[in-house]
Protein 1
Amino acid sequence: MTVPSVNLVFLGGLGEIGRNCFCIEVENRILVVDCGIMFPEVDMPGIDLVLPDFTYLRENADRVEGVFLTHAHEDHAGGLAYLLRDVPVPIYGSPLSLGLARNRIEEAGMMGRTELIPVHDGERREIGPFDCEFIPVTHSVPHAFATAYHTPAGTILHSGDFKLDPTPVDGRKTDLSLMGAIADRAGGVKLLMSDSTNACRPGFTPSESTVGDALRGVFRDYPDQRMIVASFA
Ligand SMILES: [Zn+2]
């Protein structure tokens, strides 16, 4: 018996921080997962941002089913308006991720070339031939997803960017038990794709809820001073 092939094509984001974008291919259809930008390095004067290489998607535009957004960080969502110029497709993601992405897409005048389709925690949905299950994960931006892709070749689990934050600000924790249940139900996970910034460094990243305490401490320690807050995301 031959097992139907499932292809993974990476267009950016491996071995670099930024422009996260890959394709999963089932039954000759393509689902693009994330479409981020990379911020320019010091040796890139005059460059505003770096995009994934869209050549493959341009050449196979008629096979692209849609884009799934794991979360709304710029290095995962910032390239959408550029992709839509060449490849008009629907975009799936959490309502928050879509809301944040919408700003950039509207700014670029590309809303007419897409449809924003919300998906929800724990939902299982078919996007063309892609049988997807959306798992809540904590990250430094709310409403991030890990995703299980139930493919003809087995279940692929993609963690997305994540942290294991036991006290997230919004109380929405990483659903490890759902991951376990999916693995049990599927008879094991065929492929785990997992990475997160600083994943190779030992130790823990503090919970996002410590940010509030830190700010309160600064307010207390520097009364009557002006405070400027900068946020990467
Ligand atoms: Zn992220």
Protein 2
Amino acid sequence: MSDINHESTEKSTVQLNIIREYFEMYPNVEIQTKDVVDWVISIYLERTGKIFRDPDRGIRSLYQKGFLQKIAKGVYKYAPEYAQNKRQEDFTTAQKNEVLKRDGYKCVICGAGRENGAELHVDHIKPKDMGGLANIENGQTLCSQHNFLKKNLKQTETGKKMFIRLYELAKKEKNQDLQEFCIEILQTFEDFNVNGHIEWEK
Ligand SMILES: [Zn+2]
């Protein structure tokens, strides 16, 4: 069983590499799939003596992996720069699933899950524009609401605002322990000079 799987994985890798090879010969050119198909079928036959049965599927798979850009129906383009960045920055479906699983399929901030009707997103903890890469350690599960907040306020700003709100609530409730906890955290923001533009009062 494992031999068969191994063989078919190897076969599809060889096939995908041949498709890649074609697109790499014509970087930044918009290419019709039918033009690729004839070439890859003949090269695959030449190299392996076998028939390449579904090259269209291989092209779609390279598109899903972020190697190709889809320009129109049946038209794809390989832009080296785009493919490079895409590989490093964007989570693959497998990575997303791993992050969701690790976080127990719940928003790491509010704990909402699909059973509460929340739509879950996998977010970059360190944002892409700050050089954050797509690896499991840099991923976190957020509900739509917190994903929206995060995108607009950035991670530390969101955190600071949430602790300010919690602190205000603790003051109202006269909850001494919780107040002290919040003060200590908010003090840390000041000590490290982070998000000074968001003000709070003791
Ligand atoms: Zn949430």
